[in-house]
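ok, trying the design again with the full structure, not the truncated one.
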């Protein structure tokens, strides 16, 4: 199939301090690998946690919701609030409505489904499945374009009376139980004529992990393919350090084999619903961390390897795109909420951002992976890319203007592409000169390009913005011959044409009220046409002029005068808007 494409390339700019640099050519082909690519994103494991949207809390407006709106993930995985408290369902619905506006594709997995004896209690299984069906349908009504898929349990886990541990259904070889639950959900959805089973939506099989359990999808292909909409699985690279350059070719091969098989046998897509760095647990290493009886987190967090972690994560995304996968969701967007001094039975500490008491700072890899997530949202088609240097990994997508590719008389029509993006990782020890060759079908979409570069050296030396604000892009242009040439340091870069240069309007209606303990600031929301992602709030301080003290999606903030950061500051306040393309206007 010929194409007009969106290409994203991750590259790092570097100084020529090594003498003559190696020249590398990266060529984008007109061959489409996966026509219906949904995007790169995260697992939102907190999306059912009422603490995310507690009344009176600023966490959603200034942290969680703000970062979602700025990062704009194309694909996410969530835990549905089935049989949870009402507030949990409200939290899920709030996040879903946010994702609907962003244009995200969502799939749900239940993490703690109840054990039901499928032989002795078929009515109980039907009742549970009916709850699932009604919950999914309610979510679909709230976010009709976002809600896509559902898998009834995470990684074949069910608390069986004789085995209440992770992966119990594989270990016990109880595919009869897995299949009974799966079919019950489909029957329940079908019985209420839910639109969850139409429009490209439906059930996902099998959510298995690690790769040596991906064979469970072969079982699904042979037993439940008729009620399956899409296939998906997980993997953590526990046998690879963040610096290991052998990871990418191995990962690419594994993804390609699985994606090709599901397409060949059933014509259906394959997604990676959960992946990250290698796993670290205190049950493995008999250590205590964060007052957790059971700690589960990324092995390279808070270690020298963390500066290379972003490259491993981006290689996972590149491997999925080049291997024919339809989406990837990293584990996770935020870590679970830890309150210092509190003892926990278990902790899940995988987030690109922390949530340790009031510490919600992004981790080292946040900036790099967020730029990839933002640039690779769907609907899109992944394209074949070749590199003259195997240590330069690159992938590209072409973004479409509609969710579906239209057909006429059974003949598929050429997609209507509107933009391109590419991501590139340099695994060499030194900078290289990279020339990205783009065909005329791409260059005809415009010569203005934005570039986001992140080197491993910078990751280790420059702390991420404490508010999670992403860095502004650099503007570059295609050469007359359609080439992009960049000196790329060890690290990653994103190129994209999926942006507008339009600036947001000046914030209007700024108002301040104060007393001896607090002062509040309010302003008018910018026009909808401005496509605002969030607002930055500044106060004037004698020592350094205006200082940013908030980022928020709200139009009101409150400050305690006792805040040590404001002790020497006046109440002169400035507010500026940032739109979804990262453009700002009138910031101090």
């Amino acid at each position: 199939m010929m194409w007009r494409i969106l290409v994203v390339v991750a590259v790092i700019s570097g100084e020529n301090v090594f003498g003559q640099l190696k020249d590398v050519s990266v060529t984008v082909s007109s061959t489409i690998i996966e026509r219906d690519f949904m995007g790169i994103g995260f697992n939102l494991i907190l999306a059912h946690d009422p603490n995310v949207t507690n009344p009176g809390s600023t966490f959603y407006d200034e942290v969680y919701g703000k970062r979602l709106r700025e990062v704009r993930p194309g694909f996410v995985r969530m835990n549905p609030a089935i049989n949870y408290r009402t507030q949990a369902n409200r939290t899920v619905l709030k996040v879903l409505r946010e994702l609907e506006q962003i244009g995200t594709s969502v799939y749900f997995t239940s993490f703690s489904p109840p054990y039901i004896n499928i032989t002795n209690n078929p009515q109980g299984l039907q009742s549970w499945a009916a709850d699932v069906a009604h919950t999914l349908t309610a979510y679909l009504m709230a976010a009709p374009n976002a809600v896509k898929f559902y898998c009834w349990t995470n990684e074949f886990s069910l608390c069986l009376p004789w085995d209440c541990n992770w992966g119990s259904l594989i270990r016990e070889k109880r595919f009869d139980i897995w299949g009974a639950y799966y079919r019950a959900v489909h029957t329940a959805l079908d019985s209420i004529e839910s639109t969850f089973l139409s429009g490209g939506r439906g059930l996902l099989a099998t959510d298995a992990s690690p790769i040596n359990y991906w064979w469970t999808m072969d079982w699904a292909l042979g037993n439940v393919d008729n009620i399956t909409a899409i296939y998906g699985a997980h993997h953590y690279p526990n046998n690879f350090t963040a610096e290991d350059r052998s990871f990418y070719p191995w990962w690419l091969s594994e993804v390609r084999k699985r994606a090709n098989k599901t397409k060949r046998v059933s014509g259906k897509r394959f997604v990676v619903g959960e992946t990250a760095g290698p796993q670290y647990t205190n049950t493995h290493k008999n250590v205590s961390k964060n007052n957790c009886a059971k700690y589960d987190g990324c092995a390279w967090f808070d270690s020298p390897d963390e500066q290379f972690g972003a490259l491993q994560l981006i290689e996972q995304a590149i491997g999925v795109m080049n291997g024919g996968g339809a989406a990837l969701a990293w584990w996770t967007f935020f870590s679970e909420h830890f309150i210092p001094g509190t003892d926990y039975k278990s902790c899940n500490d995988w987030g690109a951002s922390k949530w340790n008491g009031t510490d919600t700072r992004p981790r080292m890899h946040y900036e790099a992976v967020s730029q990839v997530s933002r640039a690779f949202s769907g609907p899109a088609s992944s394209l074949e890319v070749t590199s003259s240097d195997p240590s330069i990994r690159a992938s590209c997508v072409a973004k479409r203007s509609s969710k579906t590719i239209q057909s006429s008389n059974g003949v598929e029509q050429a997609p209507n592409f509107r933009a391109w993006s590419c991501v590139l990782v340099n695994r060499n020890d030194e900078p290289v000169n990279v020339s990205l060759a783009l065909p005329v079908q791409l260059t005809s979409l415009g010569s203005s390009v934005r570039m986001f570069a992140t080197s491993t050296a910078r990751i280790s030396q420059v702390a991420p913005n404490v508010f999670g604000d992403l860095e502004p892009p650099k503007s570059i242009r295609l050469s007359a011959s359609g080439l992009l040439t960049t000196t790329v340091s060890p690290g990653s870069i994103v190129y994209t044409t999926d942006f507008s240069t339009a600036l947001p309007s000046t914030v209007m209606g700024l108002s301040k009220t104060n007393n001896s303990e607090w002062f509040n600031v309010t302003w008018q929301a910018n026009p909808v046409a401005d496509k605002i992602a969030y607002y930055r709030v500044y106060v004037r301080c004698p020592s350094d002029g205006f200082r940013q003290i908030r980022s928020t999606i709200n139009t009101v903030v409150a400050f305690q005068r006792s805040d040590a950061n404001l002790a020497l500051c006046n109440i002169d306040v400035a507010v500026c808007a940032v739109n979804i393309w990262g453009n700002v206007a009138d910031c101090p």
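Keeping the full-length input from now on. The radius of gyration is 24 Å.
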